[in-house]
Design brief:
This protein has 477 residues and is α/β, with parallel strands linked by helices. The protein folds into 2 domains: 203 residues, Aspartate Aminotransferase, domain 1 (Alpha-Beta Complex), CATH 3.90.1150; 246 residues, Aspartate Aminotransferase, domain 2 (3-Layer(aba) Sandwich). Helices cover 43% and strands 14% of the residues. The protein has a 7-stranded mixed beta sheet, with helices on both faces. The chain has a 4-stranded mixed beta sheet with strand order 1-2-3-13. Strands 11-12-15-14 form a 4-stranded antiparallel beta sheet, covered by helices on one side. A hairpin with a 4-residue loop joins strand 2 and strand 3. The radius of gyration is 23 Å and the shape is globular. The two termini are 34 Å apart. The C terminus is likely disordered.
């Protein structure tokens, strides 16, 4: 008897969160219930999620940047159905799969620059792991430089170049030779490169944690310094790529030509995990040096047929539907709309970003009553104010957002690139109402902060802290 998926979902849906807590991750379920994110979604389409009552939720998180084309895009679904129906020979392993060659060719045309070879992976962190390996073997050097606050993944090698201590804590010794440097500081970079032992500098052109961007001139100068030192430049485009920032890849805003570019997330179309290491033939020749070493780096699922079809369909949808141009227009509309509210809301510091990779940052107010509330919240937990924004956005307006990291007053937006003006207006109207509530102290918004603070205090008595809403790369292992 074939699997009856509809019956299985109907049977277990009423206990969805209990089931997940029992067998997968009880701490995550506690977080979801604490902040009111414990919804039961039954359907997804475009920029929306739908619950059992048929209510829509505007998804401004897009699976941490996976759903650039929206959820369940019909053209990607159709392509995958065609691939299944074709009964393709898949994962023969001793093979040169046709679809992998086609996707590599198409992807490299979008990345441009120096790269001309692709190694396919299953995720962003795997792509970054491979990039680190390639850099060390190609250069014969041991050290890797990365930026403060960087996020390149959570597997051991990627974690070694993760600039956030909350992820590294208690995991012991990681990949040796990795060093954090300040983003934007050329003097530190120059000093370290002068030691002639740095294999690569790895960077996100737009940092996912906080949406921080260095000065445009820095990227060009950093590239020149790396070239002069014989150090490879690795650009992590796992979240910022695939049209997210208003260009195919974010580094293209700055006119740099990396030696390695890593890609994942939206390349999958939201269906089949796929990542890629795009690199130069020169690096290839130093890693895969002979027939004997033709699989010196390999994986099982990286070139599977469905993943390749998902990648090809995703590239075509982004191009055919003008999603890159739309990301630039809609991103500007949201950033300008939020910044226009700054004179009215003293805790609103700025909105920033590129395309539809946006951060909204808050700061301490000047008025006495609001300052008292601000200090009270931050005395308990430095991440609570961001939660005071994302919780009512979900509870009162059915808009899914996230805080941008641990212990920062930043809310991050990653809408699908398919959103239109009405979706942007819905967010701006909801955000304005939330800001109005936050600037009335005491008031309903501050009661949210009080409830979260009490939950944090309760959790601290059990030798733990209230976790922030899950960071944007957390599931990608």
């Amino acid at each position: 008897m074939p699997l009856n998926l509809e019956a299985l979902l109907a049977e277990y849906r009423p206990i969805q969160h209990d089931l997940f807590a029992e067998y997968v991750n009880p701490q995550l379920v506690k977080v979801l219930r604490t902040i009111g994110y414990d919804k039961t979604y039954v359907r997804a389409e475009g920029p929306f999620l739908y619950d059992q009552a048929g209510l829509d939720y505007l998804d401004f998180l897009s699976g941490y940047g996976v759903f650039n084309m929206g959820r369940n895009h019909p053209k990607i679904r159709s392509a995958l159905k065609s691939a299944i129906d074709a009964e393709l020979p898949n994962m023969i392993q001793m093979d040169a799969p046709l679809l992998a060659g086609i996707l590599a060719k198409e992807l490299l045309a979008k990345v441009g620059g120096r790269v001309n070879t692709v190694f396919f992976t299953n995720s962003g962190t795997e792509a970054n792991e491979g990039a680190l390996k390639f850099a060390r073997k190609a250069t014969g050097r041991p050290r890797i430089l990365f930026f403060d606050h960087a996020f390149h993944g959570l597997s051991t090698g990627s974690l070694a170049v993760n600039g956030n201590t909350e992820f590294r804590k208690d995991f012991g010794d990681l990949l040796p030779g990795c060093m954090s440097i300040p983003m934007g500081c050329l003097d530190t970079l120059r000093k370290e490169l002068a030691k002639n032992d740095v294999a690569a500098l790895i960077l996100e052109p737009v940092q996912g944690k906080g949406v921080y961007i260095a000065d445009a001139a820095y990227y060009k100068e950093a590239e020149a310094l790396c070239r002069n030192a014989g150090t490879l430049l690795i650009v992590d485009e796992v979240q910022s790529g695939m049209g997210r920032t208003g260009k195919w890849f974010a580094h293209q805003h700055f006119g740099i030509t990396p030696d390695i570019v890593t890609v994942a997330k939206a390349l999958s179309g939201g269906f089949i995990p796929v990542g890629a290491i795009c690199y130069t033939k020169d690096i290839y020749s130093k890693v895969f040096r002979s027939m004997e070493e033709c699989v010196v780096h390999s994986n099982t699922f990286g070139r599977n047929a469905l993943a390749m079809v998902a990648g090809l369909a995703s590239l075509k949808v982004i191009e055919d539907e003008g999603l890159i141009e739309n990301a630039a227009v809609m991103g500007k509309k949201i950033v300008d709309g939020v910044n226009a509210m700054k004179p009215r809301f003293e805790m609103l510091r700025e909105a920033r970003g590129l395309g539809l990779m946006i951060a909204i940052e808050f700061g301490e107010p000047k008025s006495i009553s609001l300052k008292a509330g601000w200090k009270l919240i931050h005395a308990v937990n430095h991440g609570l104010f961001g939660q005071m924004v994302v919780v009512p956005l979900m509870r009162d307006h059915r808009i899914l957002t996230q805080v941008a990291g641990h212990h920062v007053d930043i809310v991050k937006l990653l809408p699908p690139l398919i959103i239109n003006a009405s979706h942007a207006d819905r967010f701006l109207s909801a955000f304005e109402q939330v800001m109005t509530a936050c600037h009335r102290f005491p008031g309903a918004a501050w009661s949210v902060g009080k409830d979260l603070a009490m939950a944090a205090a309760k959790a601290s008595t059990k030798n733990s802290k209230l976790p922030s809403p899950p960071p944007h790369h957390l599931p990608e292992l």
